[in-house]
Write a structure and sequence with these properties.
Blueprint (H helix, E strand, L loop, with lengths): L1 E4 L5 H10 L6 H13 L6 E4 L5 E4 L1
Antiparallel strand pairs: 1-2, 2-3
């Protein structure tokens, strides 16, 4: 397993996990903001990626 910083192109694979948390009210707004989350200098969004490239989780 590899842990790395999230990239904007991870959104499609992270979307189901984010929605599973149950607090997303506006999916379009979340998708629009996601690249900013990945680039924010004052925070860190990590993903866990399996050997096959599947995203397993995020923090």
């Amino acid at each position: 397993m590899l842990t790395r910083e999230a990239r904007p192109d991870d959104f499609a694979r992270l979307r189901p996990m984010l929605l599973d948390m149950g607090f997303v009210e506006d999916e379009a707004a979340l998708e629009a903001r996601f690249p900013g989350f990945c680039a924010a200098p004052d925070s860190l969004l990590l993903v866990a990626e399996g050997e096959d490239g599947a995203l397993l989780g995020y923090a």
